[in-house]
Design goal:
Blueprint (H helix, E strand, L loop, with lengths): L3 E4 L2 E3 L5 E7 L8 E7 L6 E6 L5 E3 L7 E6 L4 E6 L8 E8 L3 E3 L3 E5 L2
Parallel strand pairs: 2-11
Antiparallel strand pairs: 1-3, 3-8, 4-5, 4-9, 5-6, 7-8, 9-10, 9-11
């Protein structure tokens, strides 16, 4: 059974930065594509970024150039570095592990406000 535990969310001013972390339990991390999704208030969940086992990355147009996804296989952890944050980035952010099965974390709140 895989468990994903996100951390690093919080309140930040516009233009600021945050780094989200997602620690995965189990032995399937190294064979899985990892990703971050988010759900803004009153809106549907949307893809933010993904990273494959080969470290190929994909980003939503809205975060391209501001967010960076990367993974550390030694720590079974995937990160999302978020820079130049805007109010539109306010959302609950979810970590996802995709392999034979798909697993979701519980989510972490990111609020961008002055």
């Amino acid at each position: 059974q895989v468990q994903l535990v996100e951390s690093g969310g919080g309140l930040v001013q516009p233009g600021g930065s945050l780094r989200l972390s997602c620690a995965a339990s189990g032995s399937s991390f190294s064979a899985s594509t990892m990703g971050w999704y988010r759900q803004p208030p009153g809106k549907e969940r949307e893809l933010v970024a993904t990273i494959t086992v080969a470290r190929s990355t994909n980003y939503a147009n809205s975060v391209e150039g501001r967010f960076t996804i990367y993974r550390d296989s030694a720590k079974n952890t995937v990160y999302l570095q978020m820079n130049s944050l805007q109010s539109e980035d306010t959302a609950v952010y979810y970590c996802v592990q995709s392999g034979v099965r798909t697993y979701w974390g519980q989510g972490t709140q990111v609020t961008v406000s002055s």
